[in-house]
């Protein structure tokens, strides 16, 4: 009998590059709900809830925020209505929490309070700032890889970070890179995560460091409003530079400029803490056909070739890959 690989197995076997595979999101809205009114977490949980039913008005309000991303969250034995906002497109990303009396309270969220130096408010009440949160996709009805690989990572996250800081989440994108998780408040997205990786992710997150080799991207770069393609290219460039100069602390690099060179190529410059410039060129190409989801026909996927424009840490010039 011929054995076929899952989408996650195929992605790992192909050693798919992770960096540059997450869409931008200036703000994340995390809503605790099992969606019992909708038959549970379906394959397109957020889209289904937005089409009609009790959640539709609240989701329409949240999704009117510029580049807002809504996720439903849950964990065993919890039946509250926890709500979190991660505001990532700021110099200091922040994470806020509220416990809702009713989901209709979400209509009272003042979207103007998501601006820098403001504190989010619902019906005039400020939300409480919290320090960290981890969400891991376990939405098996979207793709079985998310449940099979996400569930053990969730359990290990609970052991390492504490149950109060960890949630299961609906589809965040890129299930072929399962297990995939987001570390807040920065909105750092990791992929191909296995339980042995979790201790390093949590330890580094708490110390202000990140893991470029598991890095898919981030929600946003402070002060920049990049389109999806440019944002993904910037994330690919960031991982490349971080590995090149061993800049693993989150605030060791700051995105300075993104210039489109025509078509699917960009020049991207980051500054380090001494304002040293690290500039690369990124070209988006298409991969050979691969599974993007279990059960779907293979298709080409975007990938990024990153080349050193000025290798400041080597003093040598390189052409684009």
Topology at a glance:
Layout: H1 7-13, E1 27-32, H2 45-51, H3 56-62, E2 68-74, E3 82-87, E4 94-99, E5 121-122, E6 125-126, E7 128-130, E8 133-137, H4 144-161, E9 166-169, E10 181-184, E11 188-190, H5 195-207, E12 215-218, H6 228-245, E13 253-262, E14 265-272, E15 277-286, E16 302-310
Parallel strand pairs: 1-2, 8-9
Antiparallel strand pairs: 1-3, 2-9, 3-4, 4-7, 5-6, 8-10, 10-11, 11-12, 13-14, 14-15, 15-16
Helix pairs in contact: 2-3, 4-5
Description:
It is built from six helices and 16 strands. The protein is of the alpha+beta class and 321 residues long. The strands form three sheets. A ten-stranded mixed β-sheet has the order 7-4-3-1-2-9-8-10-11-12. Helix 2 crosses helix 3 and helix 4 crosses helix 5. The C terminus is likely disordered.
What's this model, at a glance?
22% of the residues lie in helices and 28% in strands. The protein has 321 residues and is α+β, with helices and mostly antiparallel strands.
Average pLDDT number: 91
Strand order of the largest sheet: 7-4-3-1-2-9-8-10-11-12
Which term fits the overall shape?
Answer: globular
CATH topology-level name of the largest domain: Glutaredoxin
Number of strands: 16
Number of folding domains?
2
Question: What distance separates the N and C termini?
Answer: 41 Å
Helix tally equals 6
| CATH class category of the largest domain | Alpha Beta
Which percent band covers the strand fraction? 25-35%
The CATH superfamily of the largest domain is known as: Glutaredoxin
**Uncertain segments:** 310-321
Q: Which structural class should the secondary elements be placed in?
A: alpha+beta
Q: What is the name of the CATH architecture of the largest domain?
A: 3-Layer(aba) Sandwich
Main beta sheet: strand number and arrangement? 10 strands, mixed
Cα-based radius of gyration, to the nearest Å: 20 Å
The topology string of helices and strands comes to HEHHEEEEEEEHEEEHEHEEEE
Query: What percentage of residues falls in helices of 4 or more residues?
Result: 10-25%
